[in-house]
Amino acid sequence: MHFTCWFINPPVFILAQGPIPALPELGVPIGAVATLPNGWTDNELGLEWFQQTFIPFATAHKLNDNPILLLLDGHDSHKTDELRAAAYEHNIFVLAFPSKCTHKLQPLDVIVFAQVQCQWAAHCDHCIYENIVMNRYNVIPKYMQVASAKINISYSILFNLTTSYSSYFGGKKGISRNKTSFYLLIRCTWHP
Amino acid sequence: MAQHPDVCYSKPGSLDPKWAQNFNPSNVAGFYKLLKVIYDTYLDLPPQHIWNMDEKGLQLSGG
């Protein structure tokens, strides 16, 4: 996901093994749908996401020749040699959050996903009440619908947060105010 | 309960001790130090070049 310009890298869904719904029929902008026996990412799938979804999308939104910076957590699938090679080739820095710290440092997890998850649970309760059966074919459009409504709100918080990051490090004008908010960020996220 | 030995009482833990242990000033400072190196090296790195990715589990029943 993109920090300031409201771009979302098309999300990739991983379903448990079984038939895959056809992408155009879903009618939502997503990157890909894949299947794995247990539904979790493995090294190959992580690499595939990086090469086929992230690199084309991020490169297409580049403004100048500066490198791309990708922040992610230290999952095994994010630090394979193949992924590093691909990142090096395309001038991408991959920076991982320290392990066991993502619950506080990962902005996407702390701000966006937490809210979407809450909204999704409410939506599922509603479906049970209305007797709507959720299956592998309708779950993706439904989830995108719930998520996009919630994500717009979360963005504004993220925006404030990251502009203070860049202004602090960039040493631009108005540093005193941004510096404060940067420290504030560390302070308020301190207690585990 | 006696008829179901595989069922047990337990309280959900508040926070994994490993999380609490690893979330400390030096770890976090180490991360920001690396981030600062990148920002310092590329002074005009536009925000459009900064991306964040995470994975999320999704249950059909919510939660």
The residue ranges of chain B in which pLDDT falls below 50 over 5 or more consecutive positions are none
Helix share of residues of chain B? 25-40%
Cα(first) to Cα(last) distance of chain B is 27 Å
Computed Rg of chain B: 21 Å
What's the helix-strand series of chain B? HHE
Protein chains sharing the most extensive interface:
A-B, 61 and 40 residues
**What structural class results from the helix and strand content of chain A?**
mainly alpha
Q: Which structural class is indicated by helix and strand composition of chain B? A: mainly alpha
Proportion of strand residues of chain B:
under 5%
Tally of strands of chain A? 4
Parts with pLDDT < 50 across at least 5 consecutive residues of chain A? 1-6, 163-192
Shape descriptor of chain B: elongated
Give Rg of chain A in angstroms.
Answer: 18 Å
H-E order of chain A: EHEHEHEHHHH
Quickly describe the structure:
Chain A has helices at residues 23-26, 43-60, 81-89, 102-105, 107-130, 139-170, 175-188; strands at 12-16, 32-36, 68-72, 92-96. Chain A has 192 residues and is mostly helical.
What's the topology here?
The complex is a heterodimer of chains A (192) and B (63).
Chain A: E1 12-16, H1 23-26, E2 32-36, H2 43-60, E3 68-72, H3 81-89, E4 92-96, H4 102-105, H5 107-130, H6 139-170, H7 175-188
Parallel strand pairs in A: 1-2, 3-4
Chain B: H1 17-22, H2 25-41, E1 50-52
What does this structure look like?
The complex is a heterodimer of chains A (192) and B (63). Chain A has 192 residues and is mainly alpha-helical. Chain A has 7 helices and 4 strands. The longest helix of chain A has 32 residues, at 139-170. The radius of gyration of chain A is 18 Å and the shape is globular. The relative contact order of chain A is 0.11. Chain B is elongated and about 65 Å long. Classes of the chains: A mainly alpha (192), B mainly alpha (63). Chains A and B meet through strand 3, helix 4, helix 5 and helix 6 of A and helix 1, helix 2 and strand 1 of B.
